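Thread amino acids onto this structure.
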């Protein structure tokens, strides 16, 4: 059941949209060109930049075009942190730990 968007999530969406807009501008790209390269509509790019909720796939498509997909995906890797590695040794099956 979906409810109101928590304030922290709303701030995250807004900040992420601002950062992605900055990446687009730093790369001297228009919303239309990014949309074309990402295979999404220009309104979808505008929605992401405005901090609106979109599909994960569309967000990842935009990240790829802007050249930051790998960094964002890597930032979610729990095994890249000391705490994540410690807990992985305690909780994850060997198969999941060795997938890295």
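Threaded sequence (100 positions):
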């Amino acid at each position: 059941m979906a409810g109101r968007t928590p304030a922290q999530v709303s701030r995250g969406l807004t900040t992420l949209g601002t950062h992605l807009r900055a990446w687009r501008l730093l790369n001297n790209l228009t919303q239309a060109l990014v949309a074309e390269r990402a295979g999404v509509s220009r309104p979808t790019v505008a929605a992401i930049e405005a901090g609106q909720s979109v599909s994960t796939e569309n967000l990842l498509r935009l990240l790829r075009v802007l050249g930051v997909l790998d960094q964002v995906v890597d930032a979610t890797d729990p095994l890249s942190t000391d705490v994540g590695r410690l807990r992985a040794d305690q909780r994850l099956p060997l198969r999941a730990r060795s997938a890295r």
